Amino acid sequence: MNTKSRLLGMAFAAADTLLELDADGRVDMALGAGPCPRGPVAETWRGSLLADLVGKAGQKPLAEALAAIRPNERAAPIDTLVLCGPDYVRRARLRLFQLPDLAPAVSCAITYDGAPFTLAVPEAPQLLSADGLLFRVRTSLAEADGDVAVAFVDVPGLAAPGDAHQRAAARVAAVLQASSVDGASAARLAPERFALVRAADSQTDLVTEVRDAAAAEGLDLAVRTTEAALSGVAPPESTVRALRFALEACIREGGIDGAGAAFSESLKRTLKEADRFRAMVKSRDFALEYQPIVDLSTGVTRHFEALARFGSRGPADSIRLAEELGLIEGFDLAVAEKALQQLRRSGFGLTRIAVNVSGASLGADGYVDGLLRLTAASPDIRNRILVEVTETAAVADIEAAARRLTGLRRAGIKVCLDDFGVGAASLDYLHRLPADTVKIDGRFVREIATDQRARNLVARLVELCADLKMSTIAEMIETESQADAIRALGVGYGQGWLFGRPASEPTVAPPKPVAARRQGAVASWG
User: Fold this and answer.
1) What CA–CA distance (Å, rounded) separates 167 from 175?
2) Rounded distance, CA 135 to CA 129, Å?
3) Shortest CA distance to 124 belongs to which of 65, 66, 204, 191?
4) What is the rounded end-to-end Cα distance, in angstroms, of the chain?
5) For 443-507, what is the HEC assignment?
């Protein structure tokens, strides 16, 4: 075998098509396969300008490379789309080189990536929602042979009115769908914001392909992308939960120019915060403060609510993070454990404490079983614990949650529905969850003294709860006028700065002189 044949064999081992271009960039010689597996061979390109055979977004870098190339120089690879019959394209990488003996001719090696696909899309393909994207992430992490990533793509101006923009949006959707890991894992998060699951080592140039898709409709749009590797950073379920948390922030804060600009870092930060939260729960490195709830007819303290404190981070942010990442059940049990330790201390034998439990913690048996286990050695202490079901996270299975709460009540543990009226599920919870007490959200209380509408709502709620044999608590009472208005409506108990601020220990203050009761007494649950 002569040297020329060997060199030609090596060239074809590294490429699918070999071209020689003249000084104008026209194909003077072509060897090998064309871009279409069953279409014409590359030889049919002879006489054509290479610029006419690539996508519009690839034409400028090709022209710049041809103008700048010098003998013995290799131009930077060009990732582009190559035309493959009517309305079909194929991803390709072009490598240009100029041999001194052949100058000004330029040698070009083309390597194809993936199968041909169409850019002529009469209707936009059905893309996933954010929830659908998360499902595909979970599936991909469980099944993929290699690492996967989530790529985010912003195309400002894509959603402008006009037929050309609508067609361009359909083309972009098709390109992103074809670029996803299984051809069906692209999502549209907003009119001009997309995301897709793809192989972490994918060489597909999303910017070029999306620009080509828009250019096919005569639009010159900027494209921005960012990518977050997912495999190996955490267990799959934790990764999906963290991705959801960061994804919501990305959408909420304005896409890639906001949270999405450093989405990978945002995801890592979320996972790191999750690890920190787990460590905090394990070491019990948080504090409880106790705020009194008083009998509005006597001013006597009925019980205390245990409020978690996390140092510099706000409790609401920490609770939301824990709920989103599936960490809340362990934390809710840790709060109950600390409150029980307080109840067992000398001098607190008559104290009663309410602890919060997220609706998410009622999604399985773990919380109820854990609380009963914590109180098994001294079951009488269950009569001094009240569980407040918060609505920060929705109860997924109300019937199952009702069975679990019934189990607590049978054991002697009282149940309260917290923040009633702030969430859409409040009436459904009142109807279907067994409870002893309803806590009226402070938003109704804030304007109770001056807002007749708020008074009417609270009055009807008190009547409804009385019919259901439930007591009522109003929170965020700060003034005597609010307390008077709440008391007049028949609300039994109150909580707020008027009666005491949260303190490191459940300390009973002397009651306000509403009625003659022994000072320092603690009322029963009844």
Assistant:
1) 12
2) 10
3) 191
4) 101
5) HHHHCCCCCHHHHHHHHHHHHHHHHCCCEEEECCCCCHHHHHHHHHCCCCEEECCCCCCCECCCC
pLDDT tens-digit series, residues 358-373: 988 988 899 999 999 9
How crowded is the C-beta side of 228, counted as CA atoms within 13 Å?
A: 30
Cα(526)–Cα(523) distance, integer angstroms: 8
Residues of the chain with pLDDT > 90: what percent?
Answer: 35
List the beta bridge partners of residue 193: 154, 190
Q: Tell me how far apart the alpha carbons of residues 304 and 355 are, in angstroms, rounded to a whole number.
A: 9
| C-alpha gyration radius of the chain | 33
Does residue 55 come out as left (phi exceeding 0), alpha (psi in the -120 to 50 range) or beta? beta
3-state helix, strand, coil in the chain (%, to 5): 40, 25, 35
Calpha distance 30→17 (Å, rounded) = 7
Q: Which residue has the tokens 């290479």?
A: 50
pTM: 0.62
Residue 104: cis peptide before it, omega within 30 degrees of 0: yes
Q: How far apart are CA 26 and CA 105, in angstroms?
A: 10
User: Using the 8-state DSSP alphabet, how is residue 53 labeled?
Assistant: T
Q: Is-contact 79 93, C-beta < 8 A?
A: yes
Residue whose tokens read 């001013």: 299
Q: What is the pLDDT of residues 295-346, one digit of tens each?
A: 999 999 999 999 999 876 667 778 887 887 788 899 999 999 999 999 999 9
Q: Which two tokens stand for residue 381?
A: 């202490």
